[in-house]
Design a protein that fits this description.
Number of strands: 12
Radius of gyration: 53 Å
Structural class: alpha+beta
Helix content: 40-55%
Strand content: 15-25%
Order of helices and strands: HHHHEEEEHEEEHEHEHHEEEHH
Shape: rod-shaped
Number of helices: 11
Strand order of the largest sheet: 9-8-10-11-12
Length: 421
């Protein structure tokens, strides 16, 4: 057995005085500096690992033991080397381990929340909704935005951004949007409010890229308000569209009315006159056009011979837009144009003409003129409408002469129908 000599005793005493001195320094610092033991004892490291870095309680206790043990050895040794001036580099590394453990673990594990509740980080939002985290508050040097303490909602948004999930505007009809998960009842739509109170809907949690405001999950009351506003907006849009259509219709009617007046030129007709108009049924029927002009001239002369004013229809009034309704019996066209205030009667015709050489007499042409007439007469302020289909055949040495003879027969033989009625 080894004998414990006096020399051995003092040697052991000298080897253990530094741990004793280190322990004494720790006790003094622990009593005078609040929170100093956080870096040294097992309870401090257990709190670090559990509360601040998020480990489970059992694993936090296990991890705290080796760190506290190493710190208990490293501090006295570093203190001895510093006092005696020996081994400055190892002494620095020992002190770095002692004082750098906590910030190093914080940086490596990047924990956002203390398990006791408080957030350990601050955030600022860059343009576009990107979130930048910081260990301290203040102002973000890049954007100048104020840093705010992290919340659980912002932490969720960070996780979504890392997955590439960002809020996208929902432009669908609110009645067709599924606002809540049908199974869990959790909201699936988030919103931001405009300055006018309107809603902007998004399909994920995050920030409104336009205003930078954090989005809020919808509630049943908000959904009801959104749908009410959408219905009111839709009703306003329908009313606006209807009003616009009515204005356009009114403008079109006014435009048509002006065009109608310019076509008929009612002020050009003498009071109590009879208007006469005739046109070929087919647009490019030259022979029928000749017959129509002959009928107009003959009817006008015949009416004037009775001592009654007669006028030819204005050229613009032959437009099918105006002439066809008149031929179908619509005297409202004349009323709208203002013609009825000036006329006593009106005679309109659609003319067909067919000419062919005579089979029995050489050099002679035979032409048949068929005319559908529409007549309007005023009788004690009431418009009386009638129609007649008349046909006559004339002969002549030329087609023009034969057409003129047929038109003459048509007017003379039917003057009672056309002129005297």
């Amino acid at each position: 057995m080894l004998e414990l000599t006096e020399q051995t005793f003092w040697s052991l005493l000298r080897n253990w005085r530094w741990p004793i001195v280190g322990a004494a320094v720790l006790v003094v610092l622990s009593l005078t500096v609040p929170g100093f033991t956080f870096f040294w004892d097992v309870r401090g490291y257990a709190a670090l690992f559990h509360d601040h870095l998020g480990l489970g309680a059992a694993w936090a206790e296990v991890a705290a033991l080796p760190f506290a043990f190493i710190n208990a050895i490293a501090f006295p040794i570093a203190l001895r080397w510093l006092v005696l001036g020996r081994k400055p580099a190892p002494a620095f590394l020992a002190l770095l381990f002692v004082y750098g453990t906590t910030p190093l673990l914080h940086a490596m594990m990047d924990t956002n929340f203390d398990q006791r509740g408080p957030a350990q980080k601050w955030y600022a939002v860059q343009p576009g909704g990107e979130i930048i985290l910081s260990d301290t508050g203040g102002v973000d040097p890049t954007t100048g935005a104020e840093r705010r303490r992290l919340t659980d909602q912002v932490a969720r948004i960070i996780v979504l951004q890392k997955k590439g999930i960002r809020p996208r505007i929902i432009a669908a009809d609110p009645e067709a949007i599924t606002f809540f998960d049908p199974i869990t009842g959790q909201p699936e739509v988030w919103y931001a409010r405009g300055y006018d109170g309107s809603y902007r809907l998004f399909g994920a949690e995050g920030f409104d890229e336009t205003t930078g405001a954090i989005l809020t999950a919808v509630t049943p009351a908000i959904v009801e308000d959104i749908r009410k506003r959408a219905a009111a907006e839709s009703a306003r849009a329908v009313a606006t569209s209807r009003a616009a259509a009515e204005r356009a219709d009114a403008e079109e009617r006014e435009k048509r009315h002006r065009a109608l007046i310019m076509a008929f030129i009612p002020e050009s007709y003498p009071q109590g006159t009879t208007i006469v108009g005739a046109k070929p049924r087919e647009l490019h029927d030259h022979e029928s056009a000749i017959a129509a002009q002959q009928i107009i001239t003959l009817l006008t002369n015949a009416i004037r011979a009775k001592g009654t004013p007669a006028s030819k229809l204005a050229d613009a009034a032959y437009d099918p837009l105006y002439y066809d309704p008149v031929m179908s019996g619509e005297h409202s066209v004349l009323f709208e144009a203002g013609v009825e205030q000036h006329i006593r009667a009106s005679i309109f015709a659609l003319v067909d003409t067919r000419c062919q050489p005579s089979s029995s007499i050489p050099g002679l042409f035979s032409c048949t003129v068929t005319a559908d007439f529409r007549l309007f007469r005023q009788n004690d302020g009431v418009i009386i409408s009638s129609s007649d289909a008349l046909i006559e055949t004339g002969a002549g040495s030329t087609r023009e002469e034969a057409i003129a003879r047929a038109a003459q027969y048509l007017v003379e033989r039917h003057s009672t129908t056309l002129v005297d009625r």
